[in-house]
Design goal:
Length: 201
């Protein structure tokens, strides 16, 4: 029995380090390509925080929005925001729209897809409304591989990946080889995406 606990302890130690998650995260690398001058910018929701009826955009969503806004400033193309109801009738995409408007994006440049609750549904629902041949897809590093796969499958468009929200702060110092809550959280994200890819979405 003690051997089991030793092995379990070693396993938990390893998966809780930034160094391990940095190496494993490389499996989700998606090569970025030059962004074309025309296309529709699609920003995927990454979650919201709901605390005692106070609702705000989660950190993953905010990073995706800032990156999408950066792309928008260079292209001035239409933006599709996708994300459905996440508790008590609040739709993620509508919160995302308010955020972009406060950054200065005109309301008529924003389209909202607020029905989907999964990445697969994001792709299927965006496919119904996107008209441009190029989809400039903005999402997190860990999420991009699965998202690109699904958007290629369901939209039949040319997917241009724009990556943001990198999974781990790795500086190759001794702290990166010690367990941390952030590294363990990253491992949970990696696991989620790994099984999502295995089951096809």
């Amino acid at each position: 029995m003690w051997r089991f606990f030793i092995i379990l302890s070693i396993f938990l130690y390893i998966i809780s380090t930034s160094a391990f998650n940095y190496v494993v995260s490389k499996l989700f690398y998606v090569k970025e390509v030059p962004i074309p001058k025309t296309g529709t910018i699609v920003i995927l929701g990454g979650g919201i925080t709901n605390y005692s009826n106070h609702v705000e955009l989660g950190s993953h969503t905010q990073k995706r929005l800032f990156k999408g806004f950066e792309v928008y400033k260079n292209l001035h193309q239409k933006i599709i925001l996708t994300g459905g109801v996440i508790g008590k009738g609040t739709t993620e995409a509508d919160l995302m729209k308010k955020f972009l408007i406060t950054l200065g994006v005109p309301e008529n440049d924003i389209l909202v897809e607020n029905k989907s609750r999964t990445t697969k549904e994001n792709a299927k629902n965006v496919a119904k409304i996107v008209k441009e041949e190029n989809i400039i897809l903005v999402t997190s590093y860990i999420h991009m591989k699965r998202a690109k796969m699904l958007f290629e499958k369901y939209t039949k468009k040319n997917i241009i990946p724009v990556v943001c929200d990198y999974p781990i702060d790795f500086r190759n110092n001794f702290l990166d080889y010690l367990p941390s809550p952030q590294a363990l959280y990253t491992f949970s994200q990696i696991t989620h995406e790994f099984f999502g890819i295995l089951k096809g979405g």
